[in-house]
Amino acid sequence: MSDDLALPDEDAADTAGEPPVIDTSIAHSARVYDYVLGGKDNYQVDREAAEQMLSGWPSLRTSMRENRTFMHRAVRYAAQQGIDQFLDIGTGIPTSPNLHEIAQSVIPSARIVYVDNDPIVFVHAAARLTGTPEGRIAYLQADMHDPATILDSPELTGTLDLDRPVALSLIAVLQFVLDKDKAYELVRGYVDRLAPGSLLTISTVTTNTDPDDATTVTQEYTRRGIPVRDSTKADVEPFFAGLELVEPGITLVHRWNPEPGTEGKVKDSEVAMYAGVGRKP
């Protein structure tokens, strides 16, 4: 079953064997993100929230797309370094190319574990996340705030070998951990369990690049019941304490090793995400 999605058993998803309950009365960050990127897995409430955000800051779509392509570059970099194990926490609704498609295009036998706590992500992951015959993909519905439960889960231990390097991705999720000290502690809970040579990849929200307009987006998220923590570059640095930053260090997502020929096509003021990749010595 190398190309099958390893899912939790039915009892873990729903004890009655019924579809998970999805609240469509309030906006959800994953569905807003899906809509802004052009996806169809969203509801009217998500579209209304996204359009309100876009009206306040039209560059939101550019920023989210640049965040996505940063993830692609970071995953490709990890695979090119020989890392063949990936842990993606806060997966979101699948949008091709997904992390496993990038990783397995470089290393067909790469193994990936996707983690998210959103029922709608679980539903779509089960339908879409298939990979190469040589590799393996597992999906775990769990809360990212509990590193031990995730790292000790049978879905993860049956897919990844934590005694070997793992590329850990926390893409656009840490802004939802409102206490930054708890966010640092959370990331450390994962990194401490990873083998030397592992990579930590992070992106998180900033309004530094366009304080007036970009702030309207974070305010709208909060108004919709999805509070967001804004970060400065100095706020991001402690996530990489004890790690060796990969060049060019912590920077805006579009400036992290951009593809040749793309430099200068996006303005800093159009991007509201800091990013970095660090290696565990």
Task: Give your account of this protein's structure.
- This protein is α/β, with parallel strands linked by helices.
- It has a single domain, classed as Vaccinia Virus protein VP39 (Rossmann fold), CATH 3.40.50.
- It contains eleven helices and nine strands.
- The protein has helices at 10-13, 29-36, 44-56, 60-80, 99-106, 119-128, 147-151, 154-157, 180-191, 211-223, 233-236; strands at residues 5-6, 85-89, 111-116, 136-141, 167-171, 199-205, 244-245, 251-252, 273-279.
- Helix 9 (180-191) links the parallel strand 5 and strand 6 (199-205).
- The chain is globular.
- The model is unreliable at 1-17 (pLDDT under 50).
- Keywords: Methyltransferase, Transferase.
- This is SAM-dependent methyltransferase.
- It holds the Pfam family Methyltransf_19.
- Residues 1-13 have a biased composition (Acidic residues).
H/E element string?
Answer: EHHHHEHEHEHHEHEHHEEE
Span between termini: 34 Å
What is the overall pLDDT average? 89
- Spans of at least 5 consecutive residues with low confidence: 1-17
CATH architecture: 3-Layer(aba) Sandwich
CATH superfamily: Vaccinia Virus protein VP39
| Gross geometry | globular
Could you tell me the radius of gyration in angstroms? 18 Å
Question: What percentage of amino acids are in beta strands?
Answer: 5-15%
User: How many beta-strand elements?
Assistant: 9
Largest sheet: 9 strands, mixed
What is the helix fraction of residues, given as a range?
25-40%
- Provide a count of the helices: 11
| Estimated structural class | alpha/beta
The CATH class designation is Alpha Beta
Oligomer: single chain
Q: Tell me the count of domains.
A: 1
The CATH topology? Rossmann fold
InterPro entries: SAM-dependent_MTases_sf, SAM_dep_MeTrfase_SAV2177_type
Region (Disordered): 1-20
Keywords: Methyltransferase, Transferase
GO molecular function, one term: methyltransferase activity
